[in-house]
Design brief:
It is a single chain. This protein is an alpha/beta fold. Helix content is 43%, strand content 24%. The strands form 4 sheets. It has an 8-stranded mixed β-barrel, surrounded by 5 helices. The protein has a 5-stranded mixed β-sheet with strand order 5-6-4-9-10. Strands 1-2-3 form a 3-stranded antiparallel β-sheet. Strand 1 and strand 2 form a beta hairpin.
């Protein structure tokens, strides 16, 4: 095949075949030229398809491995390290579920374009499937320290939102990074992928640099993931309860339901260990439904002896984004015969950042059922006041970080005072979270904080223990509903922590 220029100036691909002939006693040649331009273009498209991702046009795993082998050889010759970065988008599944696959595909294309535009021309950005991207940095790199490179990549994703089909999506990512030389390219990718798994296990929006000791941790994580799926199937989760106290008269107004995993061989596992993994596996909604059913069933049992006791259940972003979440709440209430006003659903304000319109629609559907809504970790986000203005909340829970700081920080004291006054003026109940010391409690009492919970009163405890706690403390106030706080009381009596239950 050779390139031929036509009289018009157009270049075409031509395949030549020549044969020697004897003609009239002379040695001659028969030359045939065939235009194979379209065939060559098709072959090139097939080669591109075999080596590039069909959605983004970026190199796929096959081409990445080929380029990584050359990168590795170059790194060895130049006495430098080859650098591989694996990247996953945090909560990409939620974006697909909420906005649809067309928006999800558009988001993947936009991420690829932003990564390509933010790196050097000599570097390679590829997609290996799903929402996982691989970046190859040619030596010498601009930022020789892996940590600086990883942070640069994270900033490319989170620095500004993506605009896809009229939707504004603020995204974060998890990054794993591996460096080395003289090893096979597939090993560098594997190590970066292990580091990525550790970064995702840490809650996302961060990076991990590979170390050899991580291999055992990843093996354990994979085993735990399998066990967690089994735990959903066989409902190996238990609901513990932490009391919420009214500070004015040392009475209990409700409890918060908190999930624990009773592993058949490892025993009781903290949610801090398995909740991030459940979110990554896409089964957090299943766990949420189990906890909701258990909490409603237990709350219904309490109503005969502790009438008006509220039970609060945390709602994950996956549940709130689900079209059938309100129906599942209604079903749990009706199945157990529980008054909707006895159920409090706690929504973390960070959930409301993306797609406020959908969140508002979901929350209004829940208020129509009659349940109460609490905004959890208030003050930890950046637009809390707008949430209070537009969303139908009944309860405001002060983030534990403010409570932790009030002993040493006058600014934190003023912040808590302002939140309490804001709640009173908006006719919202206010609960301080994470009260652990007598000094914190005394400051909250001076600020006229109406309600609190934390380890000072009781850690989350099993049903039998919380039953004893309820019998020790009389129930406070009228049956639940949307309540208007009273005028600030005088200095409340000194609280005595219930150490028997901690």
């Amino acid at each position: 095949v050779w390139i031929h220029r036509l009289k018009s100036g157009e270049l075409i691909s031509v395949e030549i075949a020549a044969h020697t002939l004897e003609f009239n006693g002379h040695s001659s040649a028969l030359v045939m030229a065939q235009d194979v331009t379209e065939r060559c273009r098709l072959e090139q498209r097939l080669r591109d398809h075999a080596l590039h991702d069909s959605l983004t046009g970026l190199p796929n795993r096959s081409l990445l491995l080929d380029r990584l082998d050359r990168l590795n050889a170059q790194a060895t010759r130049s006495d430098a390290d080859a650098t591989v970065i694996c990247l996953n988008l945090d909560n990409f599944k939620m974006a697909n579920d909420v906005y649809g696959y067309d928006v999800g595909d558009g988001l993947l294309r936009a991420v690829g374009q932003r990564l390509v535009g933010g790196l050097r021309e000599v570097d390679t950005v590829g997609r290996v499937g799903g929402d996982e991207f691989v970046l190859l940095a040619m030596p010498p790199v601009t930022d020789p320290r892996p940590e600086l490179m990883a942070q640069k990549v994270l900033d490319l994703i989170s620095s500004r939102p993506f605009h896809i089909d009229g939707h504004e999506l603020s995204m974060t990512a998890s990054v794993g990074i591996s460096t080395g030389r003289g090893r096979g390219g597939s090993e560098l990718i594997k190590n970066a992928d292990i580091a990525l798994s550790m970064a995702k296990g840490g809650g996302g929006n961060g990076f991990v640099v590979f170390a050899q000791a991580m291999q055992a941790a990843v093996t354990e994580r994979h085993r735990l993931a399998k066990d967690l799926r089994d735990a959903v199937t066989f409902e190996q989760f238990e609901t513990f309860y932490q009391p919420v106290m009214k500070l004015r008269d040392q009475t209990i107004i409700g409890v918060e339901a908190l999930v624990r995993w009773r592993h058949p061989t490892l025993g009781l596992i903290s949610p801090a260990r398995f909740i991030p993994l459940a979110e990554e596996l896409g089964i957090i909604g299943d766990i949420g439904r189990i906890v909701l059913r258990q909490a409603c069933r237990q709350a219904a049992r309490w109503q005969s002896s502790h009438r008006g006791l509220t039970v609060a259940v945390n709602v994950s972003v996956f549940q709130l984004r689900s079209d059938d979440f309100a129906d599942s709440v209604r079903s749990a209430l009706e199945t157990n015969g529980l008054d909707p006003s006895c159920l409090v659903l706690e929504i973390t304000e960070s959930i409301l950042i993306n797609d406020a319109e959908t969140s508002l629609k979901r929350l209004r559907a829940l208020t129509e059922i009659g349940v109460r809504l609490a905004i959890d970790d208030f003050g930890s986000g950046y637009s809390s006041l707008s949430y209070l203005e537009h969303f139908p909340f009944d309860i405001l829970k002060i983030d534990q970080s403010f409570v932790d700081a009030i002993i040493d920080s006058p600014k934190a004291v003023e912040m808590v005072r302002t939140i309490i006054q804001l709640g009173r003026r908006l006719k919202l109940d206010v609960i301080a979270e994470g009260v652990e010391t007598e000094q914190q409690l005394e400051i909250l009492q001076r600020l006229h904080c109406p309600e609190a919970q934390g380890y000072l009163f009781s850690q989350p405890i099993e049903v039998a223990a919380i039953d004893r706690f309820l019998h020790e403390h009389r129930l406070s106030g009228p049956p639940p509903g949307r309540r208007s706080p009273d005028a600030p009381p005088g200095a409340p009596p000194e609280m005595v922590p219930v150490s028997a239950f901690t």
